[in-house]
Amino acid sequence: MAEENEKEADSTQTGVFPVVEKPRKLSRAASSTISSWSEFLRELRHNRHTRGLVSSLILIALGAGVGYAFMAQQRITNTSYDALSESELVTLLDETNNQITRLETQRTQLSQQLDSIQTANNKQQEIERIAQENKDANDILSGSTAAYGPGIQVTISQGTKKDVSAASLFTVIEELRNAGAEVIQIGDVRVVTSTYVTDTKTGLVSDGVLLEAPYVIKAIGDKTALQNAIDISGGVGSSLRVNYGSTVTVVQKSKVDITALAHSFEYKYAQTVE
């Protein structure tokens, strides 16, 4: 019975759904829409409502950052760690502290951007500068541009006991995300919010691309934290070695090049709240 449950879990498609936040239409007239970044910048220069909307969005993001930081701190307080070893507790604490640090940094940046807009002599020009700055960061997060930086490369061989499942491979991705990975690539697939991994008759497929063993995952972030996320005792690395008979190798690198780009995604059913 346990084997049947495990097989069922292995065959389950995994993935996350993208959170859709479609901005309000920024237009001069009801019949026109903004189709390019340059048009958006022109709207910032000429439309007071648009400038006010950008400032409001920054305030909302600032509030969200504070809320997430609070929830991360609550997670430390409310979780039981009785079954974890000392090394596991240290690693988990480091991961949580990294998450809190990132959120506090984001909050500080958003606060600085808001102050910069409010105190600038030329508010239009400052909004344009911040908008371009945020666009560059969002391009990396959305997978529309290549990226490089320090990080790790994880190589996972096919299991000798049984084939590596989609669920296990996706767990590796999630553990790297939780450890603070800023950019991830698996095989030739750029990992974004909509990325999935599923079992098929021909093997594992991610975002429509067939993955071949050995599976190579590259991640940019804190090298030590990322390696600990994989090699922590009783973690995903141990699970792959014990349950699947896979060889899991983690190599820290001073420069990890992530060149795979995410495919554009068209929403057929999701609609924005006006």
TrEMBL record:
<feature type="transmembrane region" description="Helical">
    <location>
        <begin position="52"/>
        <end position="71"/>
    </location>
</feature>
<protein>
    <recommendedName>
        <fullName>DUF881 domain-containing protein</fullName>
    </recommendedName>
</protein>
<dbReference type="InterPro" id="IPR010273">
    <property type="entry name" value="DUF881"/>
</dbReference>
<dbReference type="GO" id="GO:0005886">
    <property type="term" value="C:plasma membrane"/>
</dbReference>
<keyword id="KW-0812">Transmembrane</keyword>
<keyword id="KW-0175">Coiled coil</keyword>
<dbReference type="Pfam" id="PF05949">
    <property type="entry name" value="DUF881"/>
</dbReference>
<comment type="similarity">
    <text>Belongs to the UPF0749 family.</text>
</comment>
<keyword id="KW-1133">Transmembrane helix</keyword>
<feature type="coiled-coil region">
    <location>
        <begin position="93"/>
        <end position="140"/>
    </location>
</feature>
<keyword id="KW-0472">Membrane</keyword>
